[in-house]
Amino acid sequence: MAFLGLNQELAIDLGTANTVIYQNDNIVLDEPSIVAIDNNTGKCIAIGQQAKLMHDRTNPGIKTIRPLRDGVIADFNAAEMMIRGFIKQVNNKHHSLFTPNLKVVVGIPSGSTEVEIRAVRDSTEHAGGRDVYLVYEPMAAALGIGLDVLAPKGSMVVDIGGGTTEIAVISLGGLVQQDSIRTAGDVFTSDIQYYLRQQHNIKVGEITAEKIKIAVGAVIPDLDDEAPEPYIVRGPNLMTAHPVEATITHEEIAHCLDKSIAKIETSILHVLELTPPELYADIVENGIFLSGGGALLRGLAKRFTDKVNIQFHVAEDPLHSVARGTCMALKDTGLYPFLMR
Prior knowledge:
The protein is of the alpha/beta class. The longest helix has 17 residues, at 76-92. The protein starts with 6 loop residues before the first strand and ends in a 10-residue tail after the last helix. The strands form five sheets. It has a five-stranded mixed β-sheet with strand order 3-2-1-9-10, sandwiched between helices. A five-stranded mixed β-sheet has the order 13-12-11-16-17, sandwiched between helices. A three-stranded antiparallel β-sheet has the order 5-4-6. The protein has helices at 49-54, 76-92, 114-126, 137-145, 185-200, 206-216, 250-256, 258-273, 277-286, 300-308, 321-331, and strands at residues 7-14, 18-23, 26-32, 35-38, 44-47, 62-65, 68-69, 72-73, 101-108, 129-136, 155-160, 165-171, 174-181, 231-236, 243-248, 288-291, 312-314. It is flat and about 60 Å long.
């Protein structure tokens, strides 16, 4: 067992759908943001992947909670249990005899209120964080993508997460213009559930809708690359409760997500309208960068490019851009003026 290593540094991307923890430039944890709690004792039974397996499949004695909704903490108690559990999992891998002195950087949505910011800080401190810094997610995403956020030029990032879509223009280490809208991965999932009920008379749960989104999720019907194979979904018929099968194509998903994607387009155009002309010119030259799980929807960059007339680029590893950015901020907390204590 190690006596040393009493100072521990963790970078946490506390996402609505997934929580990612970086330590020493490596991902040490990537789990769904979900907790399973015993209704009788109020104790945490499982967190992360184990809890997700129980989601929508539990008996009345157990409830599964997603502590974050729309990118912010909705259930303070469950959030604290989850963060504490995840930090404990990371610590167990190192077998330290003593509780380490934790220095943590956490990503938060750019539209967070003072109360929401305090909830994240308090949850992290209660879970063992001694030195807690917060960073806005679009700023972390820009860092993670590899943009020079401190340079005197404009960069624009669209981070489509599970609960929120963060749109920001960044220059000189600050957010010049930003918008945070609650149209993101969770809304896409419920769009798919609604569409299947309306068009196919079939009822599916959140996890199945999520699988459909990953398998055939697209935002334009004509994909240049190879179109994904149709996805076969099984579930109860709404009228008869008999089991039925439906074959879902990417064209159908593009149609059902159309309104939600249009809301994101409107927000992008709104942020661009308010951007100072000099920074706007930089953005036209360098393009706009997409990150977050939503960036993996097929045809998204093409649809946005056609709509806005500025080139959109999908980040190399969009799912982990924010986490990687918080990790870079953690390495040199004195360098970045945008970190909040």
